[in-house]
Amino acid sequence: MIEIEFNLRLAENRDNPLTLDIGESIDLPRLEAKLGFKRGDVGMLLINGAWARPDSAIKDGDRIQLYPYMDGG
């Protein structure tokens, strides 16, 4: 199981945090699909409090934080 924290607009209309049984390890694109997001909706991924690349392995026991892309300058 992993715990997922949704932030900013990703948190709208979602249980927060969400506990999810993923079974095997997965990467961000597969997690996005499992959660019903379009690929690329998530702009930043943190695994156990550390920034992670989209192809990083998400494993049982991980705490995940998801942030959308941010506009501005």
Describe this structure in words.
The chain has a single domain (2-68), classed as Beta-grasp domain (Ubiquitin-like (UB roll), Roll), CATH 3.10.20. The mean pLDDT is 93. The longest helix has 8 residues, at 28-35. A five-stranded mixed sheet has the order 2-1-5-3-4, with no helix packed on it. It has one helix at 28-35; strands at residues 2-6, 18-20, 42-47, 50-52, 63-68. It is mainly beta. A hairpin with a 2-residue loop joins strand 3 and strand 4 (50-52). The N and C termini lie far apart (37 Å). The protein is built from one helix and five strands; from the N terminus they run ββαβββ.
Helix and strand arrangement:
Elements lengths: L1 E5 L11 E3 L7 H8 L6 E6 L2 E3 L10 E6 L5
Structure summarized in a few sentences:
The protein has 73 residues and is mainly beta. It contains 1 helix and 5 strands. The longest helix is centred in the middle third of the chain and has 8 residues, at 28-35.
Report the strand count. 5
Put simply, the count of helices is 1
Order of helices and strands: EEHEEE
Shape: globular
Structure keywords:
73 residues; mainly beta; Ubiquitin-like (UB roll)
